[in-house]
């Protein structure tokens, strides 16, 4: 069995290699990659695809789901993640398995057995089920009726709620997540950006960088930038220069034009 590991933590890479020698049939780790960009390039140019991809969700240059926006991946994927329970249940229903970090040998063995059963179900040992970016996105997000319509915020001793339609963007700074409203007010939220992505409507919000999750109404000027990136000015203005990575650009432009 030929395996590709996409994981940006070297120790996690090493541990997964070690566990695979104990649980997997004789095979080969074709490569260990740590970024969206390297993964897209490798999968595009590899002379033959792997039989299985171990894929962490958060990589050094963005979300691993950006990979599926760039290329079609017709290879089974086992996610290695600490993602929220809702998403994990969705992966299970869709027959896409996952491993919680730190990975346990028993869990890895069960995931590999599930892969064998899945291949049999889809018509043979050499048949790999394909899945689209839309399917993956729908797995990570609750049904539209479950998207939040408002968020509780704190400012000193005061607690208030912010309706989603008043939100310009969310951003993370110094281990704190803030929400900025269209009228330039800023509040602290008790969420991570990863969690917020699952709570808001993807038609309205987009994770433009690892630090910013923005509403379409907050997109100001967008301009071409060096190395096929985009520079985005948000409204209200930010202290940061916001550059969208090359691998995120197609998904961002598709979202803007939806």
Automatic annotation (TrEMBL):
Residues 2-116 form the Response regulatory domain. Residues 155-258 form the HTH LytTR-type domain. GO terms for molecular function: DNA binding; phosphorelay response regulator activity. It comes from the Bacteria. The modification 4-aspartylphosphate is found at residue 56. It comes from uncultured Cytophagales bacterium. This is Two-component transcriptional response regulator, LuxR family. Pfam families: LytTR (PF04397), Response_reg (PF00072).
């Amino acid at each position: 069995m030929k395996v590709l590991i996409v994981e940006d933590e070297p120790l996690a890479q090493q541990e997964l290699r070690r566990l695979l020698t104990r649980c997997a049939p004789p095979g080969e780790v074709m490569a260990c990659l740590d970024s969206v960009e390297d993964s897209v390039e490798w999968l595009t140019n590899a002379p033959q695809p792997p039989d299985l991809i171990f894929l962490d969700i958060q990589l050094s240059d963005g979300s691993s789901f950006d990979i599926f926006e760039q290329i079609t991946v017709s290879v089974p994927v086992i996610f290695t993640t600490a993602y929220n329970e809702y998403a994990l249940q969705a992966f299970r229903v869709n027959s896409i398995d996952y491993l919680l970090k730190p990975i346990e040998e028993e869990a890895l063995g069960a995931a590999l057995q599930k892969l064998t059963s899945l291949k049999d179900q889809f018509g043979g040992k050499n048949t790999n089920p394909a899945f689209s970016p839309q399917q993956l996105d729908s797995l990570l997000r609750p049904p539209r009726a479950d998207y939040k319509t408002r968020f509780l915020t704190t400012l000193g001793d005061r607690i208030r709620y912010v309706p989603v339609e008043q939100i310009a963007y969310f951003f993370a700074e110094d281990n704190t997540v803030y929400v900025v409203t269209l009228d330039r007010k800023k509040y602290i939220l008790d969420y991570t950006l990863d969690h917020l992505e699952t709570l808001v409507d993807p038609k309205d919000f987009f994770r433009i960088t690892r630090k910013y999750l923005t509403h379409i109404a907050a997109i100001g000027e967008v301009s071409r930038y060096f190395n096929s990136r985009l520079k985005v000015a948000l409204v209200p203005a930010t202290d940061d220069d916001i550059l969208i990575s090359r691998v995120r650009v197609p998904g961002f432009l598709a979202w803007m034009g939806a």
